[in-house]
Specification:
- There is one protein chain.
- By secondary structure, the protein is mainly β.
- It is about 0% helix and about 60% strand.
- It has no helices and 15 strands.
- The strands form four sheets. It has a five-stranded antiparallel β-sheet, with no helix packed on it. It has a four-stranded antiparallel β-sheet with strand order 9-15-11-12, with no helix packed on it.
- A hairpin with a 2-residue loop joins strand 7 and strand 8.
- It is globular.
Length: about 170
Amino acid sequence: MGLFDSGKNFSVMDSYGTNTLAFQINTVVENGAEIYSLEKLKSFIEQVDSGFKKTFFFNPEPEDGQRKEVVFLTLKPGEAVLNGAEYLDGKLNIGKKPGYLKYTRLKSGSDDVEYKEFKYSPDFRRPITIVDPEIGDEVTPTVFFDTQTKEIKAKIKLLPHKYYIAIEVRND
């Protein structure tokens, strides 16, 4: 069964000028501590009369009774809205954003390109994502191994005088 044949999905409607991104919050236990990461969900987009129907897919599919936490970032001109949701047994329940989720607006203040660095977990998962609201998608990070700290890190290129949205899952 292919990803787009799955029955384990959900859909949202975006009006024209609106773009919704969905991220799954993953949790693993490493060395006795919970490690959170964000994973953008793949989607299939269909044009409908009032805008776009966007169907999001989990990969791997959740098993029956398995709860998935989802974060929605809805972008509109000059506005961004963050919501949380729970997916369980084929039903999506939208609520407020989880308390351990940080949402900030970034702006490169210099006249030069800036680079922001952040850590990845050893399994190449990251607790933060940077979204460019102009293109309505994640900024692709460059992943590297820092030989001094012996850690896997990533850096994001921020263009001068441009706004970005950072979403981070924290366990502090």
